[in-house]
Amino acid sequence: MREPLKALIAQMRWSGMERVLDEELDLAERQGTPVPEVLFRLLRAEEAARREKSLAYRLAQAHLPWPWTLQSFPFARQPSVNKAQVLTLAGLDFLRRGENLLLIGPPGTGKSGIAIGLLREACLNGYRARFYNAQALLDELYASLADRSTIGLLNQLCRLPLIVIDELGYLNLKPEQVNAFFRLMDQRYSLRLSTIVTTNVDLPDWYELFQKKPLVDALLDRLQHRCTLLRLSGASLRSEPDGSQATQTTAPTAASTRATSRRKTSPDDSA
């Protein structure tokens, strides 16, 4: 009976159950384990495997450029960052409430590290999310105008509970890019979807960046309405105090973090 059972499980692609089947059946034969308990163990193994696969998929789709975590962030070297506040943000209440996060500061002060760490926490806790370099996102929005796929792209971006827009700085923007970016932020605001923006441009200087005062007024009004603002300052974290280059601790793999992913649940746990 064992071989037909293996074949059926393989046919159903229940890889988690398949991986532990022999072990669980051997144990059951030795200990006389009741059938319901054996079935429960097999189903639990399958559920864990699917959760691990889903996490790996979310992390891959997030397009994280660096394997950074909040645990590896050098809080001791960045006194302008309130560690307790960042760890509170890692609880993801801002995401559940559809609030934004704006990180402003000079290059190298840790804006991207915090944003990536929070995005990773979102993925670990069942949310779909995506990291974008600001210029790459604006270029993608501009390219979508040529083949009239802008609506589809905006809809795709507005299916993500969280996106990070990194390095919104002094960019060479076309009017069409500015308009498309405003449409994106307006739609996400209307849907109460969270956006994390990192920038080295202070808010009054956004008028120079986007060149359209009425649009910037409307953009800042939406971005700041439900928003946490973190201002970072100080020397660049890219160099160690002795002048050598700093290194960043790498993040655990999806497999090693599956236990972490169980600590919270989310309404959006699908891949």
Descriptive account of the structure:
The protein has 271 residues and is α/β, with parallel strands linked by helices. It folds into 2 domains: 2-60, no CATH class; 64-261, Rossmann fold (3-Layer(aba) Sandwich). The protein is built from 12 helices and 5 strands. It has helices at 2-11, 15-31, 35-62, 83-89, 93-96, 111-124, 134-146, 150-157, 175-190, 206-210, 213-225, 258-261, and strands at 100-104, 129-133, 162-166, 194-199, 227-231. A 5-stranded parallel beta sheet has the order 2-3-4-1-5, with helices on both faces. α7 packs across α9 and α9 (175-190) packs parallel to α11. The radius of gyration is 23 Å and the shape is elongated. Belongs to the IS21/IS1162 putative ATP-binding protein family. Pfam families: IstB_IS21 (PF01695). InterPro entries: AAA+_ATPase (IPR003593), DNAC/IstB-like (IPR028350), IstB (IPR047661), IstB_ATP-bd (IPR002611), P-loop_NTPase (IPR027417). Residues 97-230 form the AAA+ ATPase domain.
Which assembly state applies to the chains in this document?
single chain
Q: Helix amount, in percent? A: 40-55%
Outline:
elongated
Q: Indicate the mean pLDDT.
A: 86
Largest sheet: spatial strand order? 2-3-4-1-5
Number of E-state strands:
5
Compute the gyration radius: what is it?
Answer: 23 Å
Summary keywords:
Rossmann fold, 12 helices, 271 residues, five-stranded parallel sheet, disordered C terminus, 2 domains, alpha/beta
Short structural summary:
Residues 97-230 form the AAA+ ATPase domain. The protein has 271 residues and is an alpha/beta fold. It contains twelve helices and five strands.
